[in-house]
Amino acid sequence: MIEFIDIHKSFGPKHVLRGVSLTVEQGQVLYLVGSSGAGKSVLVKHLVGLLRPDSGRIVLDGRDITWLSEAEFYPVRKKCAMVFQNSTLFDSMTVLDNVALPYRKHHRLDRAEASRRALEKLALVDMEHAARRFPGDLGDGLRKRVAIARALTLDPEFVIFDEPTTGLDPVAAANVDQLIRSLRNDTGVTAIVVSHDLRSIFTVADRIAMIYEGHIRLDGTPEDFRRSADPVVSQFIHGRPDGPMKI
Amino acid sequence: MRNVLVGPVSVVGRASMGLMATLGGATMLLGRILRALLPPRFDRDEAWRQLYAVGVKSSAIVMVTALFVGAIMVIQTAFYVQRTGATSLLGFGVGFTVFAEIGPILIGLMFSGRVGANNTAELGTMVVTEQVDALRALAIDPIGYLVVPRFIAMIVMMLMLMALGDVFAIIGAALTADTLVGVDPSVLIGDILDSHLLDEYLLGLGKAFCFGVSISVLSCWYGLGVRGGATGVGRAVNNSVVANAAAIFFIDFVMGWIFPVGL
Fold first, then answer.
1. Which own/partner pairs from A13-20 qualify as long-range (CB within 8 Å, at least 24 positions apart)?
2. What is residue A55's three-state secondary structure?
3. Closest of A231, A184, A232 to residue A205, by C-alpha
4. By the 8 A CB rule, do B208 and B104 touch?
5. In percent, how much of chain B has pLDDT > 70?
6. Residue B202, strand partner residues
7. A111: how many CB neighbours lie within 10 A of its CB?
8. Rounded to a whole number, what is the distance in Å from the CA of A89 to chain B's nearest CA?
9. Residues from chain A contacting residue B137 (CB–CB below 8 Å)
10. Do residues A238 and A244 lie in contact, with contact meaning Cβ atoms separated by under 8 Å?
């Protein structure tokens, strides 16, 4: 279980997170939603130590990880993998080498064995056919799939997806949604998905938490969001340009 | 009146703070690199890739530079050699300046412009595209994976390119001496070998080692410190080239002072 407790984070004069508290239960697909710049990505980056809070605590499976050192964070990162918004594949390496890298570094496998295991992970996301290609030769949707395969090499208990469908065409986005769902069903991983893609949110989410003005505005099931009388939540989920939401 | 006084003071203060930040940051990075080397915890595949990228791809430009360095030394001294007839001093003059002074500086500057700038741009782009954060998220230490292989590759290749450059500088000098002064190449090379320039040669290699350290550390430090997208990468490359050039001249001055040769 992951607990964010009263997290505050500022960047210069901008107070992005103003006391966010959120719990993520094992086996859930939690969608973290909100307008652009609301602090969704900022919040999840705290979990893997890429950002540190100004105040507040982060507890992972009962252990306070807020102020671990960079080296102490490595085991946490193996447990909580992150798929970045821009895939962040290493463009000087082939797809296969990208996915094999964590095997070589963490399992001390030789190149042949690391490549064999990497191909297995690529097969999970139907990308083994692109193993010898470079990330620059692939479209956004395919790169996202490779990034997911690379994250899975850590055999994580939690996977953070940062805007996995942003910039994808509807078919590619639906494929990524399906992948997240099947990962949860097949491997039992807990997924935290940062998104403002309404179609994905209501297709895949077990639970949704909306960040607005640095706080959790609503935390509930997709049905709770549909029924919400909160004008801000209502404006967001219906994508209306006019309403009380401050952009 | 107050502004007239405060203005220059604040400019000097800001520049001093910037210099201290660079020196402090680069020193801390060097400390982290050395810690990752004892015991060695770096990616060997990446080290081999960097050795190839740094060395093989830089050798042509270093050879051309060195040929001209040797040629220029002969051109500069040819007039006096012809006037005085002291052709036997040509080999000593060329060897001394090429091995100890002009060779290391010019090859260091070429290396800094070719390899250091490229390194800053590559790391900076990796920072702004979140590839460095992705490494950290994969529980891979960016120092061990990205920086240490570059550090090793730049030092090793700076030394090897310096040794190669010395050879090509002598070839350039010999060809020019034959053409301009009428000194046979074998005579010039014989003069260089008879001049007992081992100290100068070792001093040049020592400088090359120090240049390799400073170019690798500064270029990595500026690359990893990039903020603000493409503009930030451009600014970092610019700062890296300027800082490396300044460091090369400073190191040359200090080493020339500590290890005086030819006296």
1. A15/A214, A16/A42, A16/A214, A17/A42, A17/A43, A17/A53, A17/A211, A17/A214, A18/A213, A18/A214, A18/A215, A19/A56, A19/A214, A19/A215, A20/A56, A20/A211, A20/A214, A20/A215, A20/A216
2. strand
3. A184
4. yes
5. 98
6. none
7. 12
8. 7
9. 48, 50, 77, 81-82, 84
10. no
Helix (H, G, I), strand (E, B) or coil at B60: helix
Share of chain B residues as helix, strand and coil, in percent rounded to the nearest 5:
90, 0, 10
Mode of pairing for the β-strands spanning A2-11 and A14-24: antiparallel
**Highest mean pLDDT: which range of B38-47, B181-190, B231-240, B252-261:** B231-240
Judge whether B150 and B120 are in contact, CB under 8 Å.
no
Task: Please give the helix or strand (H or E) that residue A220 lies within, else none.
Answer: strand A215-220
Report chain A's terminal Cα–Cα distance, integer Å: 32
Q: Residue B259's CB: how many other CB atoms inside 10 A?
A: 14
A150 inside 8 A of chain B by CB: yes
Tell me, rounded to whole angstroms, the distance of Cα A179 from its chain centroid. 13
Confidence check on the interface: ipTM exceeds 0.85, yes or no: yes
Among the partner-chain residues B43, B130, B138, the one whose CB lies closest to the CB of A77 is B138
Q: B83-101, pLDDT tens digit by residue?
A: 887 777 888 888 888 898 8
Question: Using an 8 Å Cβ cutoff, are B218 and B240 in contact?
Answer: yes
Query: CATH classification of A2-238 is 3.40.50.2300, yes or no?
Result: no
pLDDT tops 70 at residue B262 = no
Residue B126: what are its φ and ψ, rounded to 5°? -65, -35
Q: Nearest Cα to A34, choosing from A50, A13, A17?
A: A17
Q: pTM for this one?
A: 0.86
- Determine the pLDDT at residue B78: 79
Instruction: Supply the angle between the helices A95-106 and A111-124 in degrees, to the nearest 10.
Output: 120
What local confidence, expressed as pLDDT, does residue B15 receive? Answer: 87
CB pair distance less than 8 Å for A84 and B145 = no
Q: For an interface test with B, which of A44, A74, A88 has the most B Cβ atoms less than 10 Å from its Cβ?
A: A88
* Both tokens assigned to A113: 């064995």
User: What whole-number distance in Å separates Cα of residue B263 and Cα of residue B256?
Assistant: 12
Q: Where are the domains of chain A?
A: 2-238
**Contact A48/B at CB under 8 A:** yes
Cβ pair A102:B140 closer than 8 A: yes
Report d(CA A61, CA A1) in Å as an integer.
5
